[in-house]
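Ticket 4471: requesting a sanity check on a complex prediction with L-homoserine. Repro inputs:
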Amino acid sequence: MAGQGGSIGDSGGATRPLRVAVLGAGTVGREVVAGLLEGRSPGLAPESGAFELVGVAARDLVRAAASGIPAHLLTDAPAHLVAGATDVVVELMGGEEPARTLIAAALTAGKAVVTANKYVVARHGPELEAIARLTRAPFRYEAAVMGGTPILRLLSEDLAGTTVSSLRGIVNGTTNHILTEMAANGVGYADALADAQASGYAEADPTGDVEGGDAADKLVVLARLAFGVWLDRAGIAVHRRGDRPGITGVTAGDLARANRDGLAIRLLASARRRASDGRLEAAVLTTAVPEASALGQTNGVRNRIEIEAERLGRLAVEGPGAGGAATAAAVLADLLAVRRGDGSTWGDLPAAALETAASLLPKARSFFVGPSGVKYPVED
Ligand code: HSE
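Returned structure tokens:
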């Protein structure tokens, strides 16, 4: 075990509880702490003796204590928890720093890391994976994509017997909630965004949500497991209309006209392997889809990813894509995977090369033009 001369990367079957430190007491952190303290599934039950929560790092200790986290667990010094007597570091601070440094430090020390941080994994995945491979520390990030809905392990393990040729889908709960509220309930953009924030779906700074950057981060993480490459995050095209990226240019009028035409507007993240030369193409693009299609029927905070795999055909995964309790379920499942000795999110996949994606242009044969003048590709 880490801290006892061995490594939790080497085997499962530990006989004493794994000492868990949670970094971050925000929307997801609070739920993970509650899940561990309450024993929200049989594997987490206190009598299972699987985990011991040894500390929770929070920026605002008073607020964290008021949220129900026992005061004796709280600290404002996350680096001390990482360096201290812990086996598993659960990073839920979000953002780039200090999260990246703390994750790297934990992996370097041979400690398992579980994170929901798509921002860090999308930008620093190659170096963090290299450290984890070197020290054999498990590095798991299922919660980084689709919130509580399992997708990454499906790509790295369950689809390991086939080759993924393309994937596309709705991977941001905040924007899907906004688009649904505006289209179905006539809620204004600002109110719909405020509701997504109040529901715990949006990032602390929702710019990345609404401008498509969060979806691009998730596309990098998905591509690592679906296509076996680390895409350069800076090379992911997030299409913009004039100066309006992501869904920021979508108006109530556009949504109403789309609805009259039997269409729904969705923010889609897509990647595919180009048949001609094998190069990956990727993009995040606000798209019109048939309202009656599965993507058109994916509403609110729900996400949906559709995968095309050779010989297998199309399959799809749909479920809650954001929110504290849902996302915590994926974090807790990763903790149980660490406990079982399941290794890292990439499973048995080989180390991944770096690649810069070509810009994926919409396959659309037609375009929907809303009253705002914004032109949306139409996809089936
Ligand atoms: N802000 C993200 C979303 C959280 O809305 O999808 C889940 O990654």
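Notes from triage: The domain at 10-140 is CATH 3.40.50.720 (Rossmann fold). Leaving this open until the requester confirms.
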